[in-house]
Amino acid sequence: MSTIKQVQVTFDCADPARLSAFWGEVLGYPPEAPPAPFASWEEALDAWGIPEEQRNDYSAVSDPDKVGPRLFFQKVPEGKTVKNRVHLDVRAAPGLQGDDRMAALEAEAERLTGLGATRLERHEPGGVSAGHIIMGDPEGNEFCLD
Question: Domain limits at 103?
């Protein structure tokens, strides 16, 4: 049996800095600090000789409590063309039900729209679903407010 307990979620994207900043705001994850002994990423990239045109090829944010997964963003040349096969569910209304739940999800949808997200669909509570809102991040990757 495997003992692996950690997961990193990797996003292929056009603008790693922008997308990592968006998801950092969504989840309350700060940008990762540069490695020692560097005081800033700019200092590290200068020391490593990384050309200016490659300085937005990668970015990452991490859970400050070290509980949630690290999110890694890597630049790719192609854009998103189809629906995600895997997506994140952002648990914005844990423990809430009915109108209270949907009101909390609506408030979070409004906040995230202000950060660059796009609202796609609202699904009302019913059956096995407690209700959720499907959103798109600034590059169109779908995620759910759940």
Answer: 88-145
